[in-house]
Amino acid sequence: MCLNVKSCFLFANIVFFLVFVVSASARFSTEVTKSEINSICTHTDVDASLCFEFLNSSPQIAALDFYGLTKYLITYESRKFSDMLKQFQSLVNSTTDPSAKGSYHVCVGTFDKGTGCFDDAFRHLASKDYITLEWSVECTFDMAAGCEDELSTFKPNPQLFKDISIVKNLSIMGLVIVKLFLKKG
């Protein structure tokens, strides 16, 4: 195979280059592309305008791979969930209408349970257990939807519905990423 020492050395360098350098660069160039963002944002049930606005909101997002994007999305959504939990707790304490107070109390319960879903989601993402991660993300959607159903029994501030809609859409975006990209990778 090698005719002399020089050709063997050259051959070894080429093999090294192909095996290590090319494969390493292939692994590190897995940033989410504009085409993939388009696939996420135009997927059924995703609010395209919110999705594009969110995914184009930070230059940091453009440098992420799907794992990083999912972690970023779950982190953002968990903060939003936590803020909304505090908001519902405040509404329970400040509302005098018994019907509204009861509905806000239900939302406190669902959003409190939802925070546990995020703990699970982070754990499953870290272990690359994408099937169980999908269930955890669905859990966050279900908790927000349960609160939304409860709020529809009276006329709360419309901003609450808008915030819940954002949380639900972030969950849907997460589900799309898990189903289309992470589970297949």
Structure description:
By secondary structure, the protein is an all-alpha fold. Residues 8-29 have low confidence and may be disordered. The protein is elongated, with a radius of gyration of 23 Å. It has helices spanning 5-28, 34-41, 48-55, 59-62, 66-94, 98-126, 130-151, 158-182. The chain has two domains: 1-30; 31-182, Butyryl-CoA Dehydrogenase, subunit A, domain 3. It starts with a helix and ends with a helix. Residues 32-177 form the Pectinesterase inhibitor domain.
Give a short synopsis of this structure.
The chain has 185 residues and is an all-alpha fold.
Index terms:
185 residues, mainly alpha, Butyryl-CoA Dehydrogenase, subunit A, domain 3, 2 domains, 81% helix, elongated
Write the topology of this structure.
Blueprint: H1 5-28, H2 34-41, H3 48-55, H4 59-62, H5 66-94, H6 98-126, H7 130-151, H8 158-182
The CATH first-level class of the largest domain comes to Mainly Alpha
* Main sheet attributes: strand count, strand direction, barrel closure: none
3D shape: elongated
Query: Regions with pLDDT < 50 over 5+ consecutive residues?
Result: 8-29
Instruction: Let me know the average pLDDT.
Output: 88
